[in-house]
Amino acid sequence: MDKDIVFIDTCIYRAENYYCEGNRINSFESLAKDGIISLISTEITKSEIISNLVNDTSFAFSQLYKKLTVLRNFYDKRFFVKKNKSVIFKEVQQIVKKHFSTTNTHVIGYDYCGDVENVFQKYFLEERQVQEGEKKNE
Q: Of 74, 112, 134, 136, which cross-links 130 as Cys (Cβ 3.0–4.6 Å)?
């Protein structure tokens, strides 16, 4: 019996809140760990997941920080230190790496479509290829 091959797009990760316990992503990962299905992804999708999870997490922490400011009057200020985006990035990279490796997800690299790795790395690092307002001339 051949295994089904499953590709999970970035929008599904976002809709399922990434790797939260009990969601459909975890169900697919469990099936992959048990050898029932094979998961496949691309380096681009993996980078999108990391980028989106970093941005979503940073935004959530900033919102939480704003909403909890009044509590700084009552509790130790150490609990209300803002999370640095580079720290969040490192943590997210480890989370995604762990999930991809423990499920033996086959990741298709950038080499399948030519020399685009540099372009996508700049994109996910939010380095702009054109000056602000010059997108139409790109």
A: 134
Higher pLDDT, 22 or 83: 22
Q: Are 38 and 3 in contact (CB under 8 A)?
A: yes
13: nearest Cα among 46, 55, 59, 58: 46
CA 87 vs. chain centroid, Å, equals: 14
Cα angle for residues 31, 100, 42 (degrees, 5° grid): 105
pLDDT at 137: 47
Contact partners, residue 125, CB within 8 Å, separation at least 6 = none
Please list, in sequence order, all residues whose beta carbon lies within 8 angstroms of the beta carbon of residue 36, skipping any fewer than 6 positions away. Answer: 3, 4
